[in-house]
Amino acid sequence: MFLDAVTGAVFLLFCLAAYLVVNYFRAGRKRADGLVNENERSVGAYARAMAKVVPQPGIEVEKIERDLKRAGYYAHTALVEYMASRNTLVVAVLIATGILAVLADPTTAMPRTIAIVGLLTATLGYAIPRMVLNLQARARVDRIQRGLPDALDIIRMCLSGGLPLRESIQRVASEIGMFHPDIALELQVIQHHADTNSMPDALKKFARRIDTPDINALASLVSQSDQVGTNVASAVAEYADGIRRQHRQRAEETASKTSISLLFPVIFCLAPPIYVLLCGPPLLQMRDFITEGNQPGGVLDNSSLDELSTGAVGR
After folding, report:
1. Which residues of the chain are in CATH 1.20.81 domains?
2. Which residues 6+ apart lie within 8 Å of 236 measured at CB?
């Protein structure tokens, strides 16, 4: 009976951890349309308590918060939900490990094995979500950088047609969502920030969220054009062309590095078979020659050489 109760408790703990993780990844990423009402949300006492179970340095917390924003998780509770989900997973694994280690036969090595496997699993449960979040942030930033020239071209056409910058961004955000959903989301966020403050401030916040040279330069360019009063359409068009040239140069640089990277697989994978094909037949022929020459009567037989030398001396 006790074993059944412990098994049920462990099962419920794992179900709770899985529910928190799935709920975070499904509901953590919010569309820009819900950002206005996002401040009305509040995390529960359980999430706040679990977020503080495993202490984190302040620098690491700032990095996690930055990666959450770069990955598209804009809810103000995203950091607490992430920390609570990860800590719940780690605590559940540790509790299950302790229960299984206590129930195991102490006369065998099973408790030690369970403890080692549990600690390794808890370590992976702590590290893997951070790695996944980092990969998501990098992938999303790359998608934004690749689609930025297209969005700027459409914004330039809207500006050339007479629309102001704010309405152009709104129009592009609604039109480009099918092809570049990440950029559409960022443009919607920029629009909301511009409605509450100003367009230069919204672009500066956009640059701080993404934190790439291209976005920083775009924010500075639009801010300067807005302050000086120059034509924003021509500046955006020139900047889009400049980004395309930079992307082409980066692609050429990557292609040139590829030949060097392929050198090692060629040396270690393709060169040995070539050496075998070129050097194998001569080596086999040399082996056959040495084997046949060392046989009685062969050209390399010592007795035949002695007979030849004796006959030459007798003559």
Report:
1. 147-261
2. 152, 155, 156, 159, 221, 222
Q: Taking a C-beta distance cutoff of 8 angstroms, is the pair 206, 220 a contact? A: no
CB 108 within 8 A of CB 76: no
Residue 311 pLDDT level (bands cut at 50, 70, 90): low
Domain 147-261 has CATH 1.20.120: no
What's the rounded Cα separation, in Å, for the pair 223 and 205? 12
- Region of 54 on the Ramachandran plot (φ > 0 left; ψ -120 to 50 alpha; else beta): beta
In Å, how far from its chain's centre is CA 48?
28
Helices (H), 41-175: 45-51, 58-70, 78-103, 110-160, 165-175
The pLDDT mean for the chain works out to: 75
Q: Tens of pLDDT along 49-102?
A: 777 777 778 888 888 888 888 888 887 888 888 888 888 888 888 888 888 877
Task: Count helices and strands (H / E) in the chain.
Answer: 13, 0
In the structure encoding, which two tokens stand for residue 144, read together?
């934004």
Hey, what amino acid is at 301?
D
Q: Token digits for 3?
A: 């074993």
CB atoms within 10 A of CB 188: 19
- In the 3-class helix/strand/coil scheme, how is 291-308 assigned residue by residue? HHHCCCCCCCCHHHHHHH
- Burial label for 56, CB within 10 Å (0-12, 13-18, 19+), is middle
Q: What's the Rg (C-alpha) of the chain?
A: 34
The two three-digit tokens of residue 303, written as one number: 């007795």
The whole-angstrom separation of Cα 264 and Cα 282 is 27
Angle at 281 between CA 279 and CA 285, to 5 degrees: 120
Tokens representing 112 are: 């030690």
Residue 173 contacts residue 191 (beta carbons within 8 Å)? yes
CB 48 within 8 A of CB 80: yes
